[in-house]
Amino acid sequence: MDDTLLLLVTAALALVVGLAAGWAGRSAATRRKRTREQGFFGLPDGSECVLVTHRDSASAQWSIPRHDALALLGLASVIENCGAHPEVAPHDTGLQGFGARTEFCVGDPTAHRRLAAHMANLLPGVAVHPGDATGAGRGALTVGGTTYRLEPGAVEYVLLARLTAGEGGRPVFLAAGQRPVTHRAAVRHLVRNRSRLARRYGADGQFALLLKVVNSQAYGPDVVELVADVSKAALAPAETKGQHRATA
Asked: What is the per-residue pLDDT for 241?
């Protein structure tokens, strides 16, 4: 074998080894990412989860409001990637306690019974205002001494939370918003930032993030700002004294 042929064979072998090493590295990175996501969402291979949502009050039969349905579709890709099996259930159907399987609870806490119960039990530092007799102030969120009021189509708030409690230790994810478009925005934020959130909070961490949806009448759920990580205030017992300060 002359030197030229030897050089070509050596280069070819090096290329094959390099490609194999690169493929193995990418495969390992993909597996690590998937394992991290499965831990964060509490969705190991073959596990079950439940997506709890509103009934559409405008429909005579059980159906899901459009933005909530799109929010659930956004979660579907994550659930499928984790190798889990979802069930969709209306909020007013009797379900088992939490912690046995991962739960995604999406909706308006003034109308969503399951979501309201989770917030009362797991986020005692958050108050959701039902509004007065005319409906004014409905859905306003008070957390950390500040009240966040709805300005329809202009400024709307949603609480995105990951909570761990109950038997089994599987997490409950909440997207509790003031309008359906905010639920979709919160789920989109969760899906898009799942790797960063998993790295920051881990498989056992809890968080509550207050998000602001800006000018939804023009941009829908696309323009979202993180107002604050309100985990400490939201998980703490509710205040019994003092006045709440309203946002400007």
From this structure: 38
Helices (H), 60-170: 66-82, 113-122
What token pair was written down for 138? 């409905």
- Under DSSP, the state recorded for 193 is T
Torsion-angle region of 39 (φ positive above 0: left; ψ -120 to 50: alpha; else: beta) = alpha
Q: Which pLDDT tens digit goes with each residue over 13-33?
A: 767 666 666 655 565 566 677
- Rounded Cα distance between 247 and 26, Å, is 47
Q: Each residue of 103-122: pLDDT tens digit?
A: 999 999 988 889 999 999 99
- Give CA–CA dist 51/72, Å, rounded: 7
Q: Which of 49, 37, 51, 35 is nearest to 84 (CA)?
A: 49
Contact 207/197 with Cβ under 8 angstroms?
yes
